[in-house]
Write a structure and sequence with these properties.
Length: 423
């Protein structure tokens, strides 16, 4: 994080990335002095309501973040920024998205947690669009023109007011990660009670193990000796508000509907109290590590990996077989995970995996048979990308093997038979 004082003094001359958070109420025009270098501008966590027309002078600007501000309208000047690709205005008060506010090169649009009721048709006229995050708005319909976005790969439309499944999205040829829970068209009267409900006084939270958009996962201990539950537990306490993926309650219900599988994080109980929603799970052994890292600005929708990290073809085969079994289990239970990625997967030295993070999951048993099949096909693409990402870190000496080539075929969708380990 830099400071306005540094900017005004000229200390930041030539910088490519600028982040200012000082309760700003107006755009500092000194930013324009960086016109020849600035590529990423982060003005999140301020009190801005508008951007000046001069913003278009930042001709090298590719990414702008302005989350947690006070915008009511997506600034039209954004559409005049020649090289702008990524626009992130999460958690504002936006209720208007002008038709000309969307940059021509738009690749990634984040408008999560606003008050948007209508989106312009021009959104579907952005051919480079790959990622679209619209969860937590007031949308009752989506532009039909989105059916033209042939490069769209990830969509988040959970927690809106959509009364019908958006067919124009189901037909997109590259859509692979799709979250759509918390809309009227997904409403279900079925309440999943697959695990017992306990009191939050049953356990004590200890150290934090991890946290994401929807909640915080901590190691926990029972306050009294338990006979029907394992001793080692973790508890995910949901944050209670809409997240980038949707409502916490939908995540909890999807977890419970999926039930038990050897390669999934095992849910054993839930807490459902006023202002306290939690999922109690078995504690994952400490020798498991993250398989991948989340996408970066450049990769947009695809996973990244620690530099120098690689896997043998045998390890990849074993991981893929397990993930295929998880995929089948999810869809046998009519749940779309929505976030099938290596970065949501844990693995050990024997290539055993545990898959989790149901923040983007959606139950889809209420859809028509044809729609259900399309949902499954969408997530099948995510599985193919998962395989392809693992093959990208395959040990060099294994890349000429027949097993590597077979997995390449599977990734391309040209091989449908079950993969079997040859070891």
């Amino acid at each position: 994080m830099q400071t306005l004082a540094q900017l005004k003094s000229g200390e930041l001359a030539g910088t490519q990335r600028l982040a200012l958070s000082e309760n700003l109420t107006s755009f500092p025009l000194e930013i324009l002095s960086l016109a020849n270098s600035l590529e990423i501008l982060d003005l999140s966590n301020n009190q801005l309501t508008s951007l000046p027309q001069e913003l278009m002078q930042l001709t090298r600007l590719k990414i702008i973040f302005a989350s947690n501000n006070l915008f009511e309208t997506l600034p039209e000047v954004l559409g005049q920024c020649a090289n702008l690709e990524m626009v992130g205005f999460k958690a504002n008060n936006i209720n208007q998205v002008p038709a000309n506010a969307l940059p021509a090169k738009l690749r990634w649009l984040i408008l999560t947690d606003n008050k948007i009721e209508v989106l312009p048709d021009t959104l579907g006229e952005r051919p480079r669009l790959q990622k679209l995050a619209l969860a937590g708005n007031r949308l009752s319909a989506l532009p039909k023109t989105l059916g033209q976005c042939k490069n769209l790969e990830l969509v988040r439309i959970s927690a809106n007011r959509l009364t019908e499944c958006p067919e124009q999205l189901l037909e997109l040829p590259k859509l692979a990660w799709f979250a759509f829970a918390g809309n009227p068209f997904t409403r279900s009267n079925v309440k999943i009670n697959a695990v017992p409900t306990l009191s939050s006084s049953s356990f004590t939270l200890q150290n934090i193990l991890g946290q994401g958009a929807s909640g915080v996962i901590s190691k926990a201990v029972w306050n009294k000796t338990q006979s029907r539950f394992p001793d080692d537990i973790a508890v995910k306490v949901f944050k209670g508000e809409v997240t980038s993926d949707g409502y916490p309650e939908d995540e909890l219900q999807a977890c419970l509907k999926v039930g038990h599988h050897a390669n999934l994080v095992q849910s054993i109980a839930q807490v459902n109290e006023p202002n306290y929603l939690a999922l109690i799970m078995t504690l994952i052994p400490a020798h498991y590590n993250n398989l991948g890292l989340p996408p970066c600005f450049k990769s947009c929708t695809r996973d990244t990996f620690t530099p120098g990290f690689n896997l043998s073809i045998k390890q990849i085969e074993k991981i893929v077989v397990q993930m295929e079994a998880v995929f089948a289990h999810l869809h046998d239970n009519q749940v779309c995970h929505g976030d099938l990625y290596a970065h949501n997967t844990l693995f050990d030295e024997q290539a055993n995996i545990i898959f989790g993070d149901f923040g983007a999951a959606t139950m889809y048993h209420m859809l028509t048979p044809a729609q259900q099949q399309k949902i499954k096909q969408i997530e099948q693409r995510a599985l193919f990308h998962f395989i392809d990402d693992l093959l990208s870190i395959c040990a060099h000496e294994d890349q000429l093997s027949s097993n590597f080539k077979q997995l390449k075929q599977l990734k391309q969708g040209t091989l449908t038979k079950e993969i079997r380990l040859t070891a």
